[in-house]
């Protein structure tokens, strides 16, 4: 039997770990790609840019709960690093391979070479050189471990040779690992004393709110967090990242607080006397720059990552542990006849929620032409298949989805960019490859869609069945606010140069690539078009012509009227 090489080891290990797709721009690890074809069923997706490859791997990782793999040769390494930023912010386990200098080429004017390695320090949990093939088994295992333990995140391995060829061709005699790798890698059990203390704090509060973050999805703790809320009668908010952890129509779900919010969620969190964060980084977007909750509110945190505990709330009561296990331990402590929380608090929560519904109902039902984005979110809420995964871009797409979209079925998923405009389209393709049997729906603005429009060809080539819904206002209209301020209070002069686009119909762009395209101009056509697009399946683009002047309301730290 021929001796194993770095390439065969890498191909077999990726397969063993449970990786089913890799994303790349050639030329990188060519022999490994050949070995993947020979010995595995791993799909090798060539993209139209390294950043898109990183975003696809990220969408794949978030949708599957398994590491997503992307790769680039030396000259594309910086582009790949740029694409890891969102994965770091969103705790997504992406593994990036890049080629690097040869031992003899460093510090010379070697074609296409610079020292890319430092670029990865800021955007990864772990980044290492694999100097020699004998280090490959150890560093590969270490990279996949770092990506998936504690708070998941991106990692990077630089392989010698501009296309990673040095270790590929070297002989290696090492057993291939057998372990399939998933998040969470370890289910950390909490300290029983901390669980008792947490239950005391929770049951003594008069106006508690639970905030469910992305860590709840990573842990698979959706049932436990809802059971705790139901058992104790506690309203439950979600971060934007954790939006799919509680069903939108659940009577205790108050929505997403923070910067991209449902206004009533901020109002309710501001009235709470205890906020219990589960699996959340408690960042500025969720807390509106730490104004919601107010500084006098007591905070409790449960997280698998010790450095997150007390990070922003130094006096918080803290519990270290896996969310699913810890919440189950808390449920076990609830006595049969434990009284639920104060009915007056739940009545108040209902009232604040009802008032918000009344305020926004005319917008959600609007028949205006051009279409209002609020009406689009309502029709999308109604049309979404029961098991759909919604992938949302940033800016207004995140705000409209955070505030107005509801996921009313427990089987529905939600993934959002942590802030990088343009992430949505490639990420939605990665998500569909990770979950081929579930409908995947992209919700994006036109500005976000333009970024990686070339990936429509990738969707067409591979038949990746994402349905892409574009809120097409022919502009970057979120910039209206900043430009109005910069122009002294109102837009005048040549302001349009800075945020208007051509009136492009993306359904025609899609059709030119052999992808189904739909254009919706009237609100009354939304329901039937979305239904048809979901029934026929993707890849498909639904271009919705919306109003250029309508801005999504930003979060404010204002209490509701008494
Ligand atoms: C990489 C990156 N660059 C710039 C921004 C700033 N930004 C946020 S939203 C936005 C405009 C988005 O336009 P579009 O997707 O068309 O949505 P619209 O505001 O028009 O609804 C910009 C430029 C960002 N978030 N990320
Ligand atoms: Mg736009």
What is the arithmetic mean of pLDDT? 97
Low-confidence stretches: none
Radius of gyration: 24 Å
Spatial ordering of strands, largest sheet: 2-1-3-4-6-5
Q: What oligomeric arrangement do these chains adopt? A: single chain
Reported for the largest beta sheet, the result is:
6 strands, parallel
**Portion in strands:** 15-25%
Ions, cofactors, ligands: which are bound? thiamine diphosphate, magnesium ion
Distance between the termini: 79 Å
Helix-strand category: alpha/beta
Give the total of beta strands: 18
The geometry reads as globular
Q: What is the helix content?
A: 25-40%
Number of helices: 22
Write a brief structural summary.
The protein has 562 residues and is of the alpha/beta class.
Question: Could you explain how this protein is built, in words?
Answer:
The chain is an alpha/beta fold. Helices cover 38% and strands 15% of the residues. The chain is globular. The mean pLDDT is 97. The structure holds thiamine diphosphate and magnesium ion (MG).
Q: Topology of this structure?
A:
Blueprint lengths: L5 H12 L3 E4 L5 H10 L3 E4 L3 H15 L3 E5 L4 H6 L2 H6 L3 E7 L25 E4 L6 H13 L6 E6 L4 H5 L22 H13 L3 E5 L1 H6 L2 H11 L3 E3 L14 E3 L7 H9 L2 E5 L5 H4 L10 E6 L13 E4 L2 H11 L9 H22 L8 H11 L5 E4 L3 H9 L8 E4 L7 H11 L5 E6 H6 L3 H8 L4 E6 L7 H7 L19 H7 L3 E5 L5 H11 L3 E6 L17
Parallel strand pairs: 1-2, 1-3, 3-4, 4-6, 5-6, 7-8, 7-10, 8-9, 10-11, 11-12, 13-14, 13-15, 15-16, 16-18, 17-18
Helix pairs in contact: 1-2, 3-17, 8-13, 10-13, 11-14, 15-22
The site of magnesium ion has 7 residues, from helix 18.
